[in-house]
Design a protein that fits this description.
468 residues, mainly alpha, Serine Threonine Protein Phosphatase 5, Tetratricopeptide repeat, two-stranded antiparallel sheet, 24 helices, globular, RNA binding, TPR-like_helical_dom_sf, PPR containing plant-like protein, repeat
Length: 468
Amino acid sequence: CKLAIINGKIFSAFRSSLAKNTQNLDKVLQGLCVSGKLEDAIRLLYRTGFPVHPRTYSLMLQECIFWKNYGRGRRIHAHMIIVGYVPNEYLKIKLLILYAKSGCLETAQFLFNNLVEKDSFAWNAMIAGYVQKGLEEVGLETFYEMRQASLRPDQYTFASVFRACATLALLEPGRQAHGVMLKCQIGDNVVVNSALIDMYFKCSCICDGRLLFDKCLSRNTITWTTLISGYGKHGQVVEVLDSFHRMISESFRPNYVTFLAVLVACSHVGLIDEAYKYFQSMIRDYEMVPHAKHYAAMVDLLGRSGKLKEAYEFVLKSPYKEHSVIWGALLGACKIHGDLDLLKIASKKYFEFERVNTGKYVVLANAYASSGLWDDVEEVRASLRESGVTKEPGYSRIEVQKEVSFFFNGDKYHRQADEVYWVVNLKQNAETHGTLCCTMHILQVAGNSVPLMLRNFFRYWVCHILRT
């Protein structure tokens, strides 16, 4: 088959010969994919209008998945439908992976339900797809269904499961999955180890997270960054900086996320000089160009320290002064310190670039309300209504004895609302009178009870809530 190549585009010179010998077409399409000309391959596929060998379809779909060209993958699927080609089970799984990674979970679920045999690739694709889409509960349910189907999970399965448990802060399901992983004898894997360490840190099991890190046989930058970020989330700045320097001493190169975690940690305790040192080291020693979030972390640091003028000047000198995230950091700092003049400047610039963030509307309205500027509060609320964006109510989520409860602001519909508010009032009264509990006082109650730990400064109250 001869092909005419014009301006980098490939056209069939002898379409009829391809029709007579589809093997030639398969070879040409496979050659185009291997040489990185996927778009030309798809054009040629459509021009001929003939089905090709499953191996060719598979190679083309795999290229789409690898390069995240999901739109092109859907075009290949459309071609199958147009020419009446019925994909085999292997191609169905390829299509399932394509749709799951692209976020088209309804189509992926349809393909999954119609598989004759569901292997681990299919299950992993569905679990990962749901977790990436923010449907962690569904992803975990799919994992449980996989276990009931007697399929053996692999490292990809557990990476998604631990990520779901970390996002939802589900300690018990995470521990159970960890136990299953040990029984499955999953070898030392950097991705799985990082996800597991992250889960324990996000579930506030800092010691377990550190113990797992110390037991890792193979570490890389991601593993170290997970440890550093975990300490940072809990405000343990000494551990953050110690881990960072230890990471460098062991010849691991920090990445953008590593430096961001370090800068945020410095911001939480006001280490201005240290933060500037790390910020400059990022540029000078590692030849990295800081992103908008790195500049925002520096603005947040200066703002938290009350240096609003320096923070404003830093914003104006930064290459991201036309980016919402850096103005959002300044906006939050102005709200904390009550600088209304700079607050108005920051809010105006922020909403030029970001109109749909309801959280910043609330921050701005609360800042005006704190100063008694009720006309400005109403103006902010009117702007929020005009934008057509509705604020989703915030809530807290807790799991006790495998039962998940959600609590919304002012919520009195929970079946244990009276007991919950009793504990809240007890905590508020203790804080009002400056009471510090030096020992564990346990209220005797009848029946089954659930211990609820409430932090009062650096001490703990232990209360038992009667379960109905």
